[in-house]
């Protein structure tokens, strides 16, 4: 096929001239004059550009808030894009969320308000009676510089209390929309705007064939990183192969979670919460909600960034990946995938197909992220801990760090300081000293080398305090909604 097809509010769109670097936000504002969707940061950080994207899954049609500024237009094939202009109440007036925002003074300058309303709308559709904690989580990716968030949270609570979900258009028309989107699916889609080419494979087998034809193509899954290559660095990504709709399988086999590489952070979150509960809080600090709805675990790995959020935890757990080239597959340890800065063990035409994650129920597990801002920020340093204790002795210790070196890797000297020693404070103090032999971190805009080294030492102490149940507090907690 040579057409990009999707629904935009209540209109079917068919485009023949689409380039790899075209963004959804530009299409909405410039081509469709839907200017309620704002551009704030152009990097998926502030949330002013938030729209809903509905997509078909094995469980039916779901709607998720995403960042239109870094969502590339070609990735919208066979989806339903919903903007602020489409919201309305049962009488054609304001939607209950919009009404509540007015009544509770949730807007001042108003620039960020459409994005906030769309994020709250996405939450309201899936959880109309959400509590304050769920609302705060939903708003992680929306920055408001005027009001603070208290009136916004009050508005969201009031909208939930008002009910009326059955009167919502997207709820009533979901089956009709799903049928229309299903009719847009088909074989491979080839698009171009001049020399700027975008390709959408039909399935994983077609992806393998396409990469054999175009081994140097840019793979685009959620575009949470590639989108910035376009908006901030003006990089040419053509030809680009869009794969965010592929490899969505998720299974649990004993103590192993098997994820397709295209599974997003949001899709994997329930499995993580159920099978690796110690990592649940860490998982919810990967970007904001919009980023978690777009970003995929496989791409976070394949990108090879030394500050990627998932690899430190996954390496500590002993995760493995399946790489595919044509019909040939190979499996390797995740830690062996990262060779050097910008270099991974991935051959031309090869792609990450699956991620295998041991749940390690016998182990003590923790994951930590250090960033300037708690929510929706990039790591200055991150760590994953997986420590097995038998009879009071540390039988196995696996500790991996991100942000501490040119690659994501294990702290071997610190692990050796723990191995075989009694599970006691002295062992973790020894590991805190030994981690200096593992890393020589750099100074950059996110943190100094000294800060990173100090953080690495202190995370061993924090792990001990948490796991030894001493009762010593390791974090300050603020009452939700306060």
UniProtKB/TrEMBL annotation:
The lineage of its organism: Bacteria, Pseudomonadati, Pseudomonadota, Alphaproteobacteria, Rhodobacterales. InterPro entries: 2Fe-2S-bd (IPR002888), 2Fe-2S-bd_dom_sf (IPR036884), 2Fe-2S_ferredoxin-like_sf (IPR036010), 2Fe-2S_ferredoxin-type (IPR001041), 2Fe2S_fd_BS (IPR006058), Ald_Oxase/xanthine_DH-like (IPR016208), Beta-grasp_dom_sf (IPR012675), CO_DH_flav_C (IPR005107). PANTHER family: XANTHINE DEHYDROGENASE (PTHR45444:SF3). Keywords: FAD, Flavoprotein, Iron, Metal-binding, Oxidoreductase. GO terms for molecular function: xanthine dehydrogenase activity. The gene is xdhA. It comes from the Bacteria. Pfam families: CO_deh_flav_C, FAD_binding_5, Fer2_2. Gene3D superfamilies: 3.10.20.30, 3.30.465.10, [2Fe-2S]-binding domain (1.10.150.120), CO dehydrogenase flavoprotein, C-terminal domain (3.30.390.50), Uridine Diphospho-n-acetylenolpyruvylglucosamine Reductase, domain 2 (3.30.43.10). Transmembrane segments: none annotated. This is Xanthine dehydrogenase small subunit. Residues 191-362 form the FAD-binding PCMH-type domain.
